[in-house]
Amino acid sequence: MRRPRITLAIALAVVLISGVILSSALGQLGISPAEILRVLTNQPGNDPLIESTLWVVRFPRIVMGLVVGAALAVAGAVMQAIFGNPLAEPGVVGVSSGAAVGAAASIVFGFTLFGGWGTAVLAFAGALLATLLVYVMSRANGRTEVVTLLLTGIAINAFAGAALAFLLFVADTASREQITFWQLGSLNGSRWQEVLIVAIVTVIGLVIALFLARRYDLLALGERNARHLGVNVEALRIGSIVLVALLTGVAVAFCGIIAFVGLVVPHIIRMAIGPSHRALIIASAVGGGALIVYADLLARTLVQGADLPIGMLTSLIGGPFFFYLLYRQRKRSGGWA
Amino acid sequence: MSLRATNLEVTIDGNPIVRGVTIDIVAGELLALVGPNGAGKSTLLALLSGDVKPTGGSIELDGTPLHSMRHIELARRRSVLTQENQVSFPFAVSDVVEMGRAPWVRTASASEDEEAVSSALRATDTGHLASRHYTSLSGGEKARVSLARVLAQRTDIVFLDEPTAALDLSHQEDVMRTAAALAAEGRAVVVVVHDLSLAAAYADRVAVIAGGVLDSVGTPAEVLTAERVSRIYGLEVEIVSRDNRPVILPVRH
Predict the structure, then answer these.
(1) CA-CA distance, A264 to A4, in Å (whole number)?
(2) Please, what sign has the CA dihedral across residues A223, A229, A233, A239?
(3) pLDDT along chain A (337 residues), means of 10
(4) pLDDT at res. A2
(5) What is the CATH number of domain B2-250?
(6) Cα distance from A142 to chain B (closest Cα, Å)?
(7) Which residues of chain B lie closer than 8 angstroms to A85, CB-CB?
(8) Whether the Cβ atoms of residue B88 and residue A84 lie closer than 8 Å to each other
(9) What average pLDDT does the structure give for chain B?
(10) Contact partners, residue B252, CB within 8 Å, separation at least 6
(11) What is the DSSP letter of B108?
C-alpha cells in the first residue's frame, strides 16, 4: 500500500507544479519561467505589465482553480462515502444547481453584502437544501440505490433549472450575464478577496473531512456494521451533508457550476491508491486542484482571444466518464441496483 | 457481564414481530437461536444487540438500559456479524478486518490490534486472502472475512446472524468451533442458525423462536425433541442421539 501512495504523491506534485508554472507562463502575454520567479521573489526592476498580469490576473486565477478544484473533489469524495455509492457527485445529484440558484438569487435581489460573503451564504443555503432533499428522497431503509439517487438528481436539476430561468427572466442585463456565468462556470475575473473566502472555507472543510475519514472507512461496511463499530451514523451523515453543501456552495458561488470534478478525481485516486479515505481525501484535494488548473489553462488558451466556460470543458470530459461508470456498475450488479 | 431481556415486544406497522420474550445472555455460553423462516430470530438478535429499540419491555446490560449507552461504549461490549456484508469500495481484506479494531482506537487495548487481527485471520482461515480486495471475494470468503472482522473486535458479547449460511461443510464446522471456543474463553455468544443438528452439536443452550414468541430454552437434548421440532416446523422428524447431542433427520417417505 505504501509504494503506490508515494508514486501518486510524486506524480501529483509534478503535475501540480508544472500546471501552475504553465498557467502562469501561457496566455495572451507570454511570460518566461525566469520572469515568473523574479516576480514571485519580488525582485526590483520588473516590467510593471508582467507584474500586474501575474499578480492581478493569473495568480488569483490559479489559486482560485486550486482551491475550487480541491473543494469540489473533496465534496465528491465525502458524498460518495455517505451515500456508499461512487456515482454520487454534487453536480450530478443537483447540489451544484441548488447552489447556483442561491448565488443567482443573491445577485438578482442585491444580497451581496460583506464583500462576497452574502453570495456565498445564499449559495450554501441552496446547496444545503438540495443535499437534504437528495438525502431524504433517495434513502429507503437506510440505503441509497443508484436509480433513486440519479432520479432525485434529475428532479432537483430540473427544478433548479426552472428557478434559474425565472431569475434570468426577472434580472436586469448585468445580472443576466452573471447568472449565465454560473450556469457555465468560469474562473475568469477571480479576485484575491474571493479567493480568500473560497480558500478559508475549503481549508476548514478539508480539515473536517480528514477528521471524519476513519468513520467514512467504517461506513463502507454498511450503516449497521458501522454502528456496531461505534459510529454515530446519523450524526455523521448530517454533518457530512452540511460539509458537502459548504464546499460545493462556496465553489459555485464564485466560479459557477463545474461538474464532474467530484466524480472523476476521487475515482482515479481510488484506482491508484485504494479507497482508504484519509489518503483519498488528501490526494483528491490536490488532484482536484491540479485538474482545474489544467482545465482553466485550456479554457483560456484553446481559442485565441476567448475565454471558454470551464464547466463546459469538465462536462465534456466528465460526461463520457460518467457513462462509463454507469455502464460498469450496471454490468457488475446485473441491473440498476 | 449480564445481558438481560425482559418481556420484549416489537411491533412493526401494527404487526407484532416479537412478543413477550424474556431471556438471559450468559457469559461463557454458546446460545443458538433457531426457528422457522420469519419467526423473528433476526429481529430478536437486532433487539439484543441494540440495533432495534423494543416497543415494549427492557434490555439491560449490567443493569444499564442498552439504549442509553453511547455507540462507542456499546461497540466495546458487543460485536455483531450481520447477514448483509457488502462493502461499498474495494478495501483490502486486511483493512476490513482491521476495521474491527476501530472501537479500541486510543484505548489501552489498541496495543492488541495487530495480534487481534492476525489471530482473527487465522481462526477464520482467511490469512491467505489478506491482500485481496474484499469486493473480489466469493460469498463464502466474504462471510469468513466478515467473521474475522467481528472476532478482531474482541468483545464480551458476540452476536452471529447466520454465520454458516454461505459456507461449505468444513467451514461451517470451523465457524461453529470458533464460536464454541469464544464461549469457552468466557464470552457470551449468540448464534442464529438454521441447521438444527449443527446448533445441537455446538450450543450450550438452544432457544426456539416461533411466531415471534420464545417457545422454549434449554440444553439441545431438552429442547430439540421430535415432538417439538415437528410441531414448530410442520415437518415430521426423527431424532438420533450422538454423544447426548440430538441429530435431527426429516422423515422422508
Answers:
(1) 19
(2) negative
(3) 82 92 86 84 80 87 95 95 86 88 86 72 90 81 70 90 91 84 82 91 96 95 93 90 91 88 92 93 96 92 84 87 80 53
(4) 66
(5) 3.40.50.300
(6) 13
(7) 88
(8) yes
(9) 93
(10) none
(11) G
Tell me the three cell numbers of residue A198.
Answer: 473560497
Residue with cell 499578480: A55
Cα–Cα distance between A148 and A319 in angstroms, integer?
19
**pTM for this predicted structure:** 0.90
CA dist A16 and A69 (Å) reads: 12
Quick check: B58 and B50 in contact, CB under 8 A? no
Cβ contacts of A331 within 8 Å, gap of 6 or more: none
What would the grid cell of residue B177 be? 468451533
What distance in Å separates the CA atoms of residue A198 and residue A92, rounded to the nearest whole number? 22
Q: What's the longest Cα–Cα distance across chain B? A: 61
Cα maximum dimension of chain A: 67
Contacts of B85 in chain A (CB under 8 A): 221-222, 225
Grouping H, G, I as helix, E, B as strand and the rest as coil, residue B12 is strand
CB pairs under 8 A between A and B: 72
Rounded-to-integer distance, Cα A29 and Cα A12, Å: 27
- A144 pairs with which residues across the strands? A139
The answer to whether A261 touches A291, Cβ cutoff 8 Å, is yes
Kindly write down the DSSP assignment for every residue of B219-242, as one continuous string: -HHHH--HHHHHHHHTS-EEEEEE
Task: Tell me the ipTM for this assembly.
Answer: 0.92
pLDDT digits (tens, 9 = 90+) for A255-308: 888 988 999 999 999 988 989 999 999 999 999 999 999 999 998 888 877 788
Of B84, B85, B102, the CB nearest to A218: B102
Q: CB pairs under 8 A, 24+ apart, for A205-211?
A: A205/A71, A205/A74, A205/A75, A205/A243, A205/A246, A205/A247, A206/A70, A206/A74, A206/A281, A206/A285, A208/A239, A208/A243, A209/A74, A209/A77, A209/A78, A209/A243, A209/A281, A210/A278, A210/A281, A210/A282
Does the beta carbon of B88 lie under 8 angstroms from any beta carbon of chain A?
Answer: yes
Domains with residue ranges and CATH for chain A: 2-333 (1.10.3470.10)
- Type of residue found at A278: R
Q: Domain locations in chain B? A: 2-250
